[in-house]
Amino acid sequence: MELLPRGPAEFGSARYWERFFRRRGPRPFEWYGAFPEHRAVLRKYVRPRDKVLVVGCGNSELSEQMYDVGMCEDIVNIDVSDAVICQMRERSGSKRPKMSYLLMDMLQMDFPDAHFQVVLDKGTLDAILTDEEEATLAKVDKMFAEISRVLQVGGRYLCISLAQAHVLKKAVEYFSQEGWVVRIHQVASSGDKQQFVLPVFVYVMTKFKKIPGSAPQILEICPEEQDKPMRMESAEQLVAAVKDRQHYALLCSQLSKTPCPEQVSLDLCDKESGRPRYTLHVVDSPSVKPSRDNRFAIFIIPQGRETEWLFGTEEGRRQLATSAGFGRLVTVALHREQHYEGMVGIQAELSGKVMELAPPGLPAQQQVPFLSAGGDIGVRTVQHRDSSPLSGEYVVEDVKGDGMCYFRRLIFLRNRNVVQSEARLCAQMPLPGQKKRRKDKKKPSPAEPPAAIDKSYLCCEHHKAMVAGLCLLGGPDPLPGTPLTVLVVGLGGGSLPLFIHDYFVKACVSIVEIDPCMLEVATHWFGFSQGDRMQVHISDGLDYVVKLAAEAPSQFDAIMFDVDSKDLTVGMSCPPPAFVEKPFLQKVKTILKAEGVFILNLVCRDARLKQSVLATLREVFPLLYARHIEGEVNEILFCQSSPEGRRNPTELGARARALEGALRQPGRPWDSSYMLADMLQAIKIL
After folding, report:
1. Basic residues bias located where (predicted)?
2. What is the pTM of this model?
3. Which of 342, 441, 487, 678 would suit a FRET pair with 628, their CA atoms being 20 to 30 Å apart?
4. Is residue 205 left, alpha or beta, with left meaning phi > 0 and alpha meaning psi from -120 to 50?
């Protein structure tokens, strides 16, 4: 402990290092790892005939080992400590005749200009740049200027560093502005991990003649697991990339020591594109009694199923880990932009990386099982990809669900973990590698859907609840033959209005959709079509309702809002806040018939905001019911204008059974999951 400085500033003091090396003696002091850990990177940039300068050499064995393995022999070592220079001269003796040790300050070197091909710095910059005070920065500028002066054009400044943000930022900005090529290598191992949890980096600054004007900066990073550098667009992006790797190292260190009370999420990116390839969640289960075989497992989520409750929510993943019976489970979601070579390929790719997330006490050679639902990685086929000025990038994809069912989904990539619309496909899609039975069958065009849409099936639980809400209408039982006027705001894939149109044969459905691209998607990919009883109006829902309120009040039996918010900064993703402001809700009430029902899909994670929305709804609609969708954030709100229309659960159940029975007509497909009475049993009056 007596060897440590009183404060960080002492690291830049020659007096401190003189005292340090006199007290420590000849025992080597290896900051940031020993030669074997740096050998691979040094071999790339140090040639046998190079003249190498080591600044702030200390008593490290780095230059000695470089000499001994034949990497380079013409090495000059300098340091400000007379004690360490004497130690190193004595230690090296006549064994390395071409290597020398000189007492010299690197801020004022005696060497001529362009004298070296390589300047090597192991921790010296970190020791000097302890803060961002003006005097410290001036000292570093002088250090960089001297290094630049003694290096030849084409020479390399190799700086081994922990890459603290202010150190890296200073080095990158200085040399990139001088026109040098800047490349950062992450060293495969950080030496004594008890001393340094953070990874070690090597800055490689290659000197070029400065070109007048604004020459493009060349900034690159080489992660430890790959040789090919990744180009960065700015110094800020390069610093951020290093910071990400430091955070990952800290996370791995934390996970290796103690159980994690909260779920940890991280992305592993593709080496070539830099895009996320895997999303990992680390889930610890304290209730699982640990044994040799149940400490750790990896669960591969089948493609396309990452949005399901079991895999896409904290509670679901916790239940998955507990039921799997492992103390720590890492769930792995696969990204749609990536290609995967089956379960074996994924296991080979992830095996080394996931072991860095192993729980404390796991034996080094422990076999870790890879699990999945159904034993495969699932099927995902992107049928269509495009971008909308209003909704941003989106994809239409077909995925294999649980069992042999296939589904078509619309995903907005700005919120890629949320299924915007979903429909079940009638025909089974062929599995990869499966042979066709009929060779004469015409191959479908890639632009055409491979199977018909099952229009009788509502995939979304909240859509089932919204249909069940028609039982709240006044008058006689809402049988399918009863004339209805329905307004739906928000088209999506069109499954909700399409179901109402097909099953309520006298319903007239008006749909308002702000994004014309969604009408194209619904028509081409989800089997939607307009007709005499169903029309789409391309308009802002707010403007459309206000216009109707002025022109034709009291015209709808049911109004349904299923519209998402484009603003992800608000704690309510459905509907946009303007749709639940009191003046607008009063307009909604104006166009609703006296015994009609206003049905709203509310998705709000902000508890305070949710209470505010409910309070506003009560001010406008005296009768308010709510149905929470199990396993989801969604809550379906049923609003009516008159409290006299209040119905008890028994009456609602009877009406729901009557409606369900009427909808189950011979020859008409009906899914057994449409238990409308069950859907309304959980309804509550607010």
Report:
1. 434-444
2. 0.67
3. 487
4. beta
Average pLDDT, the chain: 83
For 450-468, b where at least 16 C-beta lie within 10 A, e where not — what string? beebbbbbbbbbbbbbbbb
Question: What gap in Å lies between CA 468 and CA 560, rounded to an integer?
Answer: 12
How far apart are the C-alpha atoms of 272 and 226, rounded to whole Å?
10
| Per-residue confidence band for 191, with pLDDT thresholds at 50, 70 and 90 | very low
> Residue 387, exposed/middle/buried by CB under 10 A (0-12, 13-18, 19+)?
exposed
Q: 276-284 and 328-334: which strand pairing?
A: antiparallel
The C-alpha atoms of residue 220 and residue 172 are separated, in whole angstroms, by 11
Omega cis (within 30) before 369: no
pLDDT at position 673 is 52
Distance CA 171, CA 166 (A): 9
pLDDT at 659: 72
Q: Distance between CA 625 and CA 611 in Å, rounded?
A: 14
The Cα–Cα gap between 230 and 220 comes to 5
Cα separation, 466 vs 488, whole angstroms: 11
Cα 370–Cα 371–Cα 372 angle in degrees, nearest 5:
135
Could you tell me the two tokens for 29?
A: 């002091």
> E strand or H helix at 53, and its extent?
strand 52-55
Sheet of strand 116-122, all strands in order from the earlier edge strand to the far edge: 100-103, 75-79, 52-55, 116-122, 151-161, 201-206, 181-186, 219-222, 230-232
Ramachandran angles phi, psi of 72, nearest 5°: -170, 145
- The residue type of 379 is V
Q: pLDDT tens digits, residue range 382-396? A: 899 999 998 899 999
CATH topology of domain 459-685: Rossmann fold (3.40.50)
Three-state secondary structure readout of 299-333: EECCCCCCCCHHHHCHHHHHHHHHHHCCCEEEEEE
What CATH code would you report for 8-246? 3.40.50.150
DSSP 62-126: HHHHHHHTTS---EEEEES-HHHHHHHHHHHTTS-TT-EEEE--TTS--SPTT-EEEEEEESHHH
Q: What share of the chain is helix, strand, coil (3-state, %, to 5)?
A: 35, 25, 40
- C-alpha dihedral sign at 180, 181, 184, 187: negative
Q: Are 571 and 532 in contact (CB under 8 A)?
A: no
- Name, in order, each residue with C-beta under 8 angstroms of 77's C-beta and a sequence gap of 6 or more: 54, 57, 63, 88, 99, 100, 101, 102
CA distances from 78 to 180, 204, 449 (A): 24, 20, 71
CA distance 379 to 429: 10
Nearest-CA neighbor of 528 among 519, 517, 515, 540?
Answer: 519
Q: What are the extents of the domains in the chain?
A: 8-246, 258-360, 459-685
Q: Is 472 helix (H, G, I), strand (E, B) or coil?
A: helix
